[in-house]
Amino acid sequence: MRTNRLGNSSVHVTELGFGGGPLGGLFAPLDEKRAAGALEAAWDCGIRWFDTAPHYGIGQSESRTGGFLQGRPQGEFTLSTKVGRLLEPQEAGGRTDEHFEVPATRRRVWDFSRDGILRSVEDSLARMGADSVDVLFLHDAEGHFEDALREGCPALAELRAQGVVGAIGAGMYDTALLTRLVTETDVDAVMLSGRYTLLDHSALDDLLPACAGRGVSLLAASVFNSGLLATPRPVEGAHFDYRPASSELVRRTHRIADVCEAHGVTLPQAAMAFPLMHPVVAGIAVGMRSAEEVRGNIASFGAHIPAGMWADLRAEGLLDERAPVEA
To answer: Per-residue pLDDT for 34 more than 70?
Structure first.
């Protein structure tokens, strides 16, 4: 699998990355056996970039990812995690975490201060059994952006200078705030959730040009927009950005699927291929919860996409004219 460098750093990622949200029980519980099977299949299929976060399953995703990677040579994979939420112990009392299907043994505390970030990294390294992280992102800082910009970014730069992390950046969905981060700080990469996909091209307005001008890489997450693009046709109750998709979005998705099918392509295949055609996009992160899902995503990722399909999507007004595609 092809790899790309993140900005001016020495860190490389495979173009398809393993998104660790499902390992934390996102949307549904995930047992140890299926989680291990998904990680093993990803490795066997050539994926070498593994992305996780304290938020995912209040530490469960980090523990599972780190445990798996401890048996692999350190120079052969790229590990990314995130900061911004500290995990404080609490009594579960039979409760399940509101975000992930795991016992609520911890609670999240927002903290983008220097001390909070240093503590978060220390905790993450302990959970993962690692002594360093390849990429560290400020996570979901939209509601705490000034703190993240003023204190968080210098703390990340400090960790990078110390060699604790190899590359730094932020993972958010707000393109305007990420654009500020790119233009006002010295980050290597940003992870953008759901704003450069077949259904949402809004990153073309601000973030992608800013990344190109500053030599910053973009990593595209939520390329299926929470599920609407994850199947050949939208399924009943499909989600867009973690909410039920509107009828207008479902209709648009069916129109895109019509064009794809005319060229022998499925929606997931097109959704995975689209972001990577932009020169600043270094990789896509896709959440996976089983070996079967991994193998299905690998098959979609490697599919041939005829250039004529992109031309037809443009002709139908379904693809922004500014989006780079294969001619």
So the answer is: yes
